[in-house]
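Case study B.
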Amino acid sequence: MCWPLAEHARPGTDLSRVTGMVLVHDLVEIDAGDLFLYADREQQERQEIAERAAADRIFALLPAEQGSVLRHLWDEFTARQSPEAKFARALDRLQPMLENLAAGGGSWQRHGITADRVLANVRLIEDGSPSLGALARNVVKRAVAAGFLAPAPA
Amino acid sequence: MCWPLAEHARPGTDLSRVTGMVLVHDLVEIDAGDLFLYADREQQERQEIAERAAADRIFALLPAEQGSVLRHLWDEFTARQSPEAKFARALDRLQPMLENLAAGGGSWQRHGITADRVLANVRLIEDGSPSLGALARNVVKRAVAAGFLAPAPA
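Model:
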């Protein structure tokens, strides 16, 4: 995703750091297990603790100097302050939306997620890339029109 | 592998191109199916045709300009002429050796592969990185000593 969508990053974005962040964040999620985006606050807090423990474990497997480079990338991804981290997080959030659209609803339908909740998450995509944010809004519109996503809670 | 082992690449190696090559070659292998390294010549020729067809299909999914960037990376990986491609191919070949050592024999044992055949493949690793080549020779030595790998055909 990072390479073909590079034109949607802000000018000057260091794409090799974005690639590193998306790879490194997956290592942590493989170890800690991923969490459904719309989990409740308590689950999210448990997940944050599990991911931090996983990061502590994984990056400490490397010699200190190398471990700290990768740990720094993961911290940067998590903090979402740099343009690179914002773009990486936007990609990470856009990806399941594209999958759900392609799958005719996917996890949105299984968990009864409605368009208003998806749109609340689009803000993070917009923050990383205005044009990908616009694309994400369009994905929601198409999913609602196709009946894959309910517009609002019944 | 690419990042923590970067110090074993020749000075001046462009690591973001190496990362791109290892990612892109996996896309093609996912599509075409991977082949066991010690398959016979006929299987290898069939595999080459299948991978080229997969590459033609996958990279053509992108707009022409983007597709040609990724296709070029894949062609570079396949041709194994540039220092980046040689290093990427060395990583790709080292990885199953580390897995087989960790697994107590793995695919070497299942297919009755002997150390002489593994050592013939170490040359490609050496060509990409002399120090990783030395490490690979050591992996073979340890695997033989541990009884995970037969030294020569019975």
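DSSP finds seven helices and no strands in chain A. The remaining cases will be described in the next quarterly update.
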